[in-house]
């Protein structure tokens, strides 16, 4: 086991695909100096993860109004206790997230307890900030965007190219 | 033609059913549907999940995909001919941006309305997409230095 523990946070679908590609590339550079842990609303543990934490979805794709708000509050509360448990058991040096909302909440928590936060704006954004990006550009230690079209939208971000 | 329809992990019944109805009535293609729920179709075969999805991609002449960026980029990297249909059955409409991007760059045909998918399947037979190019990610070392 390595002393550097990095928590990788991602949602399903494209967010998951981006994290797989990101960890694949970073781990080649990190050369076994880092243990990657994962946290997602996707149930299955990725192959690259030492330990996977299954979180609840923050935003429902189908509920609206009060039902959606209730869904969010209930699941954020549940996830908060999960994060406390991770904090107690692991010294998380950095959190990397490819979004969406689950990344924001987790990054806020770990930033508050002293971890570094790295955030990648999603590869599907070209014209507008994502909801997560709006928040994360303010709190991330490193904020990257993948499409050059976003340069004027995130002037303080860093262009990274596309995963 | 062998046509794969893929909707990812979110229900997109209107796409599946419109493809099914049109092809059943007007065409003679081999259809495969990747759905995320049990859906009865007039033709073709369905599955909800496969670890071998890339094999399905490779063996298809045309892939009709929802507007999920992961699916779109993977298919473009495989040089597949695709039709993209943004899923507006979802609450959020964030798939629109990438659909505009692929349409603007002629990487794919885009069906903004699932009811128009039939005409686009016909059009795809003569459609020649532009070669997909991207600025590849170059921050792996920088991120590694931060976390090590």
* Distance between the amino and carboxyl termini of chain B: 50 Å
Largest sheet of chain A: 7 strands, parallel
Strand content of chain A: 15-25%
**Class by alpha and beta content of chain B:** alpha/beta
Widest sheet of chain A: strand order?
A: 3-2-1-4-5-6-7
SSE string of chain A, helices as H and strands as E: EHEEHEHEHEE
Supply Rg of chain B: 16 Å
Tell me the layout of helices and strands.
The complex is a heterodimer of chains A (163) and B (148).
Chain A (H helix, E strand, L loop, with lengths): L3 E7 L3 H17 L3 E7 L11 E3 L10 H25 L2 E6 L3 H12 L3 E5 L10 H9 L2 E4 L12 E2 L4
Parallel strand pairs in A: 1-2, 1-4, 2-3, 4-5, 5-6, 6-7
Helix pairs in contact in A: 2-3, 3-4
Chain B lengths: L1 E5 L6 H14 L3 E5 L10 E3 L5 H7 L2 E5 L2 H9 L4 E4 L9 H10 L4 E2 L6 H8 L15 H8 L1
Parallel strand pairs in B: 1-2, 1-4, 2-3, 4-5, 5-6
Characterise this structure.
The complex is a heterodimer of chains A (163) and B (148). Chain A is α/β, with parallel strands linked by helices and 163 residues long. Chain A is 39% helix and 21% strand. Chain A has a seven-stranded parallel sheet with strand order 3-2-1-4-5-6-7, sandwiched between helices. Chain B is 38% helix and 16% strand. Chain B has helices at 13-26, 53-59, 69-77, 95-104, 117-124, 140-147, and strands at 2-6, 30-34, 45-47, 62-66, 82-85, 109-110. Chain B has a six-stranded parallel sheet, with helices on both faces. In chain B, helix 3 (69-77) links the parallel strand 4 (62-66) and strand 5. The A-B interface holds A 4, 6, 12-14, 16-18, 21-22, 25-26, 28-30, 33-34, 60-64, 68, 93-94, 96, 116, 118, 122-128, 130, 141-142, 144, 146-148, 158, 160-163 and B 8-10, 68-71, 73-74, 90-92, 94-95, 97-98, 100-101, 134-141, 143-148.
Task: Write a concise keyword list for the protein shown above.
heterodimer, A: 163 residues, alpha/beta, seven-stranded parallel beta sheet, 4 helices, globular, B: 148 residues, six-stranded parallel beta sheet, 38% helix
